[in-house]
Design brief:
Number of helices: 15
Order of helices and strands: EHEHHHHHEEEEHEEHEHHEHHHHH
Number of strands: 10
Length: 400
């Protein structure tokens, strides 16, 4: 078994907020190199991602044979992002999707001509598929499994058809698919279609059909109904897990300086998305910490009788409110998108939560990358304790 086979990485969802993950990973790479780690050595044998985190996870896995090169490549993409690389941001594209979609919601009973072919989402993310085709090298992913650089890769999506949370995983190890309440797993070859489905933010991007057990299931963002975000890594054999969050876990509370107003559509949508992307992770982390604490109190003879084992966990999450950061960058959105989002209040401070998921613009993503670097550097000791000073120290997990 390779030295990293039981070390897991979990990258959560969050649209453009996933730029924060890139900063965290880039700083971890520097911390490990400073500690004499081989820059080519991949510290994560098990990589799991959801939504935009699934894209980062797969990009990392596709170059797992050289961790430093993989991180540098991902940073280059996120530091030069433009919204048009992810969704149609031109006037015609916005009119064909967003304007029609909003009009149908408002006046659908009048618009009979659209009932036969209604718009499927607020935005058209066809450009993202083209970007992923240029960004990912799946032949290198296969090679990473063969040479032992990678043990398992998992991507999650949510089935609109069956109402189940689905995990697609790729590995050479003999790992049986798991079945839990509303959570199913299927062994598969990860492809761009899985990433498009996993990152299809509800209402914002269209659902994607995926093959599940010989049937097509229309799937959307994997963060929906994700009751246990940490569980795929555990099922795949992780004994220690690094989790990179995208908000709320360490963010300071919001400071309200004005009298409460009736919420705008963007404010409601942003709150809903934050609940989908952020809350289940916080609950799962709390659950895991309670289990760890309970197991630490058991005598050795009782611990041997339970299938549960302590799990070493390191969580890194934003120390600043990403909504507030997004509010400083809404003007960098292309005019057609900014105009459409402004109509529902997303360019106002109180609606900036929605904008924080759609701001695929370099001014915003660079600031999130810098924040990820800063927060990780502040946790340098925790990072070194988690990994050890050198790869061979991973055989002796740190238990907090």
């Amino acid at each position: 078994m390779s030295h990293n086979a039981t070390t897991g990485l979990i990258l959560t969802g969050g649209g453009a907020r996933a730029a924060y993950q890139v900063g965290v990973l880039a700083e971890i790479a520097e911390i490990l190199v400073d500690a004499s780690w081989n820059p080519a050595s991949n510290p994560f044998g098990i990589i799991c991602g959801t939504s935009a985190g699934a894209i980062n996870a797969t990009a990392l896995a596709c170059r797992a044979d050289h961790f430093g090169e993989s991180i540098a490549n991902i940073v280059r993409v996120w530091e030069s992002f433009e919204a048009a690389q992810v969704y149609r941001a031109d006037s015609l594209g916005v009119i064909r999707t967003g304007a029609r979609w909003l009009s149908l919601w408002s006046f659908g009973w009048l618009l009979n001509k659209w009932r036969k072919s209604p718009p499927n989402s607020l935005l058209d993310n066809a450009p993202l598929e083209e970007l992923l085709g240029r960004m990912l090298d799946f032949s290198r992913l296969d090679a990473a499994f063969l040479n032992g650089s990678l043990h398992a890769l998992a991507v999650t999506a949510s089935s609109y058809s069956a109402g189940q949370h689905l995990t697609f995983y790729q590995t050479l190890a003999d790992i049986e698919p798991w079945v839990r309440s509303q959570r199913l797993a299927q062994r598969d070859f990860i492809a761009i279609s899985h990433l498009m489905a996993s990152s299809a933010i509800p209402f914002i991007f269209p659902a994607v059909p995926l093959n599940w057990g010989g049937q097509m299931e229309y799937c959307g963002d994997g963060s929906m109904r994700q009751l246990a975000p940490i569980s795929p890594a555990i099922h795949l054999g992780a004994k220690k897990i690094l989790i990179v969050g995208a908000g709320r876990l360490a963010e300071p509370p919001a400071v309200r300086m004005e009298t409460a107003q009736y919420p705008s559509l963007a404010q409601i949508a942003g709150h809903a998305l934050s609940s989908i992307f952020l809350d289940s992770l916080a609950v799962d982390i709390e659950r895991l910490m309670r289990i760890n604490k309970t197991l630490s109190m058991l005598p050795p003879e009782f611990l041997e009788k339970t299938p549960l084992r302590p799990l070493d966990l390191l969580v890194i999450a934003p120390s600043e409110r990403l909504d507030d950061i997004a509010n400083r960058h809404t003007q960098s959105l292309p005019l057609p998108v900014r105009t459409m989002l402004g109509g529902i209040g997303a360019t106002e401070a109180r609606g900036s939560a929605l904008a924080s998921y759609l701001l695929f613009e370099s001014s915003y993503t660079k600031e999130l990358i810098a924040l990820g670097r800063k927060d990780t550097r502040a946790r340098q000791k925790d990072v070194l304790d988690f990994f050890g000073a050198a790869p061979d120290a991973m055989a002796h997990p740190h238990v907090p």
